[in-house]
Amino acid sequence: MERISKTLISREEIAEMVDRLGKQISEDYKGKDIVVVGILKGAAVFLADLIRKIDCPLILDFMQVSSYYNSTVSSGNVQIRKDLDYDISGKHVLIVEDIIDSGVTMQCLKRELFARNPESIKVCAAFDKPSRRKVDFKADYTGIEVPDEFIIGYGLDYAGRYRNLPDVCVLELDGGDK
Ligand code: IMP
Ligand code: MG
Known about the structure:
Elements: E1 2-9, H1 11-28, E2 34-40, H2 44-51, E3 58-70, E4 75-82, E5 92-100, H3 104-114, E6 120-128, E7 141-145, E8 151-152, E9 168-173
Parallel strand pairs: 2-3, 2-5, 5-6, 6-7
Antiparallel strand pairs: 1-9, 3-4, 8-9
Bound molecules: inosinic acid and magnesium ion.
């Protein structure tokens, strides 16, 4: 069984982070329309908070993807489980993701969406684990950096559970080294 070991990021810290990102995004996209693409399911909670802090006209769309890393070619592939409803050609696209870990998912997804000829694409991630990178990827907007631990809550899951926790917590797994 798994066990919640400690709170890593409080709901208050999360709220401040969302505020800061919302302000920055609103400034950067002033006078522009945005297509905000939420990555299901992990980004759902962050997305709901973030869009209410963005002060620009926007439409909301969703994708669900899974990625595979191929170490022999140092890259990966993304499988689209749910695609966008909107055509993004000529649009400013802002991808909203829960966490960047290896970086493979976002690198592949950005490549896939660039092929649809948007005006621009940026990525906003609530959390970032830079120590786990397998590919060179950096989000345009990053909320909070986290250490190399498995975290849950605020949309992040373990086996589909814990997404509803308001704080981000560290999960200890049986057979782990701690
Ligand atoms: P990446 O392609 O390795 O960057 O994968 C990122 C995805 O892995 C995220 O969208 C999450 O679904 C999942 N993930 C990575 N780290 C964690 C974690 O600590 N807790 C929960 N999910 C995670
Ligand atoms: Mg995810």
